[in-house]
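Assess this:
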Amino acid sequence: MITTGNWADALEPIAHKSFAVGYKEVPAERDMLFDVRKSNKDTETYLEMGDVGLMDEFTGSVDYDDVAQGYKMTITAKEYAKGIKIQKKLARTDQLNVVKGFSKLLGLAGRRRIANDVVFGYNNAFNTSITTNDTLQLCSAAHTSNQGGPSQSNRGTAAFNAVSLEANRLSMIKFLTNRGNVFDVEPDLIVHPPDLDEAVYEVIKSNGKVDTANNNRNFHVGKYKSLSLKRLTDTNNWFLIDSELLKEFAIWNEIDPMEFKQAEDFDGLVAKYLAYMFYGFGFSDWRFVFGAEVS
């Protein structure tokens, strides 16, 4: 006797292929803006290292310094899932196009979720929807220290241009450690929305000084890379980043990458498809970035 109990198995290759078409691959921006780490824990804890003073001259005895723990923060992973159920009658009468379409949408949903989370920290850099190790927003005018260091700011308000770029660069290279020593920051990346594409390009690519009749050389040419992110929701905000420090402080803990599953409901003659992933992300320090919240 020919039965329909295994009909979903026949649809599985179609669904998997269409899902892959929708998902394609992990958005490239994730690996550019985060240090992606494998994890097996839903909560990972990160400690800020205490700083040491300058090395003293050796005059016969070693000067031993104390190193105390700084701030502690955790990154908690979340599970994400989206499913569809397809009735056999619908799949058969629609000549399987419904299977292709719905499973592709699952892939798109997963990719968009990751892409939105990649920029979540920048879209919320000036509020407490996401915080860094001192429990303040990623870009704050008053970052604190529990090791005796001064209060510091990595937040500005100036619109992007050559003058504000240099002002923010100078602010960054003067960042101090949690004990007040120079932190050694070298910004080399500008992250911005597409609305600033032209302005950023002119500032960092022009050989001559921008928007003047002077024949002076452009100080900024060749110093920066730029990254335009279409999911940045504010059209004026922009960020100056040390891309080397970013890879130390911007953390993406991947427990389970995107996976696609299939199951059958024999009684209801329904095929079930599920897309699933499990990850967490956050910032263990703020000193890699200077953000401009432009009104």
In short: The chain has one domain: 12-51+69-292. Residues 1-7 have pLDDT under 50 and may be disordered.
